[in-house]
Amino acid sequence: MTEFPKGFLWGGATAANQLEGAYNEDGKGLSIADVLPGGPERFNLVNQPDFNWTMDDKKYTYPNHNGIDHYHRYQEDIKLFAEMGFKCYRFSIAWSRVFPNGDETEPNEAGLEFYDRLIAECLKYDIEPVITISHYEMPLHLVTEYGGWKNRKLIGFYERYASVVLNRYADKVKYWMTFNEINSALHFPVMGQGLVKSNGGDKMQNIYQAWHNQFVAGAKAVKIAHAIRPDILIGCMLLYATTYSYDANPVNQLAALKENQAFNHFCGDVQVRGTYPAYTESVMNRYGFSFKDLDVTADDLAVLKENPVDYIGFSYYMSTAINVTDKKLATANGNLVGGVKNPFLEASDWGWQIDPTGLRIALNELYNRYQKPVFVVENGLGAIDKPDKNNFVQDDYRIDYLRKHIEAIAGAVDDGVQVMGYTPWGCIDLVSASTGQMSKRYGFIYVDLDDNGQGTLNRYKKASFNWYQKVIESNGQEL
């Protein structure tokens, strides 16, 4: 087995809105996640023309409100992560805990104090925090009052927020990321940009304008971070779905190339290289507008050029196959992006196609494209876990999935790829972002909570807990 680099960052990943709960405690404001209904239809609901960001407790449930109560049980959870041997823990700061509405001039001290405690708890066990500054949880007020990220004013609001958290924590936290899965907005802009049909989310020009504003805001965060601490590492974060042509038909090959440019590469090219790629106009023309139609200033372009990110963080759950020559082929579900069913792959309980080799390809594509370190910050298997009478889950299917993906990372290391670390998603069961369900579980730790919010919230180790403990202890040698 390949030797993983010394200091390889083994750990796990979560997001504030999916596990913290305490959605209205200690001065926290509402985030967009707080008003997303729970259940497998949540994406369909927010895509309706009349969705207006209001809650209806009589019609829907809102599982993000309570999450798994990590806000009050973080010490117990971090202790379990330490028992597994985590070298790092990727989590996000909830923007609306720090700036409840997003546009205040002064932060909410009670919100910052929670992250003081959380970071201290990680460091107590020598766990390196890896912090996502914005992970699908922007303050709701920035959407209802300003229209989301298509409004340039959000650049300043984000810059102020990033400045506060970076100045407060940079001496304790070396690893940061600007925006979670920023490119997901191409297919679903609600969570990353606060855009739905009712406020312009069905117009691609708005999505690209929102991206530009986020690129500038992220570059300003990079500038702040480097000024505070020269050795800080601040990355972008992409949703990467390795994309194949369904067959050798040149028409499908070209379609796969175009999909790669628009989805997998565009956001990375701007943030890592600091300039818009040569194919920018081609991509935008496809959607009926031009780069000159965007509000872009010379100062914006200078900030992007001068402040590229230090590394590429990315999520990888599945690959996708492109076929534009046969409309009758069955489609596949996926992490905000689908495609056609690949006959060579099996799928998860939720229809996501399982492709470990695709991760090795992704790592090679990203590293050879950018020549900067890459970090697998999300990867995992969402599955229906059935605990026995002792609340033990024998999740061999999860172990098998993770083992094969770690082997793929080892293969990429052999290929010469500089991989920083591996933080499987949902290292403890939490509320699914795509379905708002607890039953779609990813964790090494089972949380006794169902889709209706019923349960003890007690934590139980799954079989994968002990397996991953040995993986970390052996630095990936014992799989």
From TrEMBL:
Keywords: Glycosidase, Hydrolase. GO terms for cellular component: cytosol. The active site is at 378 (nucleophile). InterPro entries: GH (IPR017853), GH_1_N_CS (IPR033132), Glyco_hydro_1 (IPR001360), Glyco_hydro_1_AS (IPR018120). It comes from the Bacteria. GO terms for biological process: carbohydrate catabolic process. One of its GO terms (molecular function) is beta-glucosidase activity. It holds the Pfam family Glyco_hydro_1. Belongs to the glycosyl hydrolase 1 family. NCBIfam families: PRK09593.1. PANTHER family: 6-PHOSPHO-BETA-GLUCOSIDASE ASCB-RELATED (PTHR10353:SF122), GLYCOSYL HYDROLASE (PTHR10353). This is 6-phospho-beta-glucosidase.
